[in-house]
């Protein structure tokens, strides 16, 4: 191959490589921007969810620490009622009259 022919090919190749490199750089920047935008949106959603959970915890803390609200007594009352319902304890009213008769 003639060396004189390589010079124009090389001269044309340099701008093509430069254009291709610049294009690749722009694609990479767009990818970074898209990722940053998605990450920012996700962070905002997480912050909102955390704030909601913190608000709920504050409400629960207020309920539990309220002096007029006795959680343990109410829980035990519910357990006692469930135990009566599950065990079927107690005597049906209809059987009392039959036994006495």
UniProtKB/TrEMBL annotation:
Domain of life: Bacteria
Coiled-coil residue windows: 36-63
Keywords in alphabetical order: Coiled coil
Protein name: Phage shock protein B
Organism (species): Qipengyuania nanhaisediminis
């Amino acid at each position: 191959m003639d060396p004189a022919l390589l010079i124009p090919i090389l001269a044309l190749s340099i701008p093509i490589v430069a254009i291709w490199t610049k294009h690749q750089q722009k694609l990479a920047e767009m990818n970074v921007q898209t990722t940053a935008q998605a990450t920012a949106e996700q962070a905002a959603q997480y912050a909102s969810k955390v704030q909601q959970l913190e608000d709920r915890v504050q409400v629960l803390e207020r309920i539990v620490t309220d002096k007029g609200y006795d959680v343990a007594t109410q829980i035990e009352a519910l357990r006692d009622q469930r135990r009566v319902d599950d065990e079927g304890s107690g005597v049906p009213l209809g059987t009392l009259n039959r036994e006495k008769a």
